User: Which sequence fits this backbone?
């Protein structure tokens, strides 16, 4: 089958088998790339109109007990500058964000044992109480099902936990054996069972990633049915074991984003900071390829450059909450409108 026929099949049936995906991802050309982009944009427009949801990203801690080989926050990186926000600082960021119009707060961080269940529950409850009209998204890594349930009962609504790769051997090329592929996947199933709007995802261009791995990632997304998908390019951090690798590729990331939109239809799909870091047009290109969420940085200014997953992180201008006006303008110029709503996942019965 021609690639355009495969893209059409994915659009109508919502699925391709392993070999079909493999053919598409390994042989697509510029024409297929443009075709997928247009189709993804059409689907996004039909479901979300020209609306782009904004989330305020609060990076609560740069401490991490894990040692993922690709990440600047890994515990073995002794040069990483560590900080953590206390409850008051987190609430202050929410207050600033609320004033700016954000109605979703994303609390993200390394796996920092400082935030024991009692403290995290207290923080979540306080945000819920102060901002009842806001959604609370967490991205704090792997926890027990009991802990996830406590977070949920305290008022958290969404949880982002990228699966990173759906291939066990590849998982251990990216992570030490002290981490567990099975546990990662189990966490995602637990989050879904509890009722979280759940996000999985992966980096494009990670170490030793093959087309087969990417196909398995797409098939896993199909199977898990997440409400959100986080996909961005892998970017080098100079103080990690992967310091000599190359960044993920812009066009491959954009193509995969459009394929995810065509496959899933209504998923919430952010144009990530990594994409904006890789290329100055990355964010807007992501949106043109089917993304419908942006997450400006709402962390206190002084910690933003300490939360470094990769080199040259984009933290100023439109990446920052202070640059929201500029971001709104850029999006408007390109025909999109930022909306100040929670922007929860809504099932959409898409008919081509
Ligand atoms: N610690 C939590 C976790 O790992 O799920 C949440 C924060 S972690 C920094 C969020 C995501 O950042 C990870 O899932 C990973 O995909 C991404 N990330 C880490 N290092 C990266 C790098 N060098 N390039 C691009 N993305 C990276
Ligand atoms: Fe820690 Fe997350 Fe970075 Fe892994 S990706 S080292 S878990 S912050």
Assistant:
């Amino acid at each position: 089958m021609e690639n355009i026929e495969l893209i059409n099949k994915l659009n109508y049936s919502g699925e391709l088998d392993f070999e079909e995906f493999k053919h598409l991802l390994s042989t697509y050309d510029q024409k297929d790339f443009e075709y997928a982009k247009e189709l993804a944009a059409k689907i996004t427009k039909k479901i979300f109109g020209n609306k782009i949801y904004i989330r305020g990203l609060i990076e609560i801690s740069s401490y991490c007990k894990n040692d993922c080989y690709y990440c600047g926050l890994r515990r073995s990186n002794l040069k990483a500058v560590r900080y953590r926000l206390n409850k008051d600082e987190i609430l202050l960021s929410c207050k600033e964000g609320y004033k700016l119009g954000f109605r979703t707060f994303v609390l993200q961080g390394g796996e920092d044992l400082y935030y024991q269940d009692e403290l995290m529950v207290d923080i979540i409850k306080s945000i819920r109480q102060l901002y009842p009209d806001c959604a609370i998204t967490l991205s704090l890594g792997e926890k027990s099902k009991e802990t996830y349930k406590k977070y949920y009962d305290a008022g958290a609504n969404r949880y982002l936990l990228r699966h990173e790769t759906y291939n066990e051997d590849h998982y251990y090329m990216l992570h030490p054996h002290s981490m567990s592929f099975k546990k990662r996947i189990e966490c995602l199933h637990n989050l879904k069972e509890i009722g979280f709007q759940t996000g999985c995802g992966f980096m494009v261009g990670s170490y030793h990633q093959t087309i087969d791995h990417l196909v398995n990632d797409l098939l896993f997304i199909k199977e898990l049915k997440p409400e959100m998908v986080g996909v961005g390019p892998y970017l080098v951090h100079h103080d990690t074991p992967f310091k000599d690798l190359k960044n993920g590729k812009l066009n491959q990331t954009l193509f995969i984003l459009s394929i995810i939109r065509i496959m899933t239809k209504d998923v919430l799909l952010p144009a990530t900071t990594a994409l904006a870091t890789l290329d100055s047009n990355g964010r807007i290109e992501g949106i043109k390829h089917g993304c419908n969420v942006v997450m400006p940085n709402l962390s206190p200014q002084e910690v933003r450059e300490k939360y470094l997953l990769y080199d040259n992180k984009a933290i100023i201008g439109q990446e920052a909450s202070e640059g929201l006006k500029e971001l709104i303008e850029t999006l408007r110029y390109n025909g999109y409108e930022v909306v100040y709503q929670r922007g929860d996942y809504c099932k959409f019965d898409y008919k081509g």
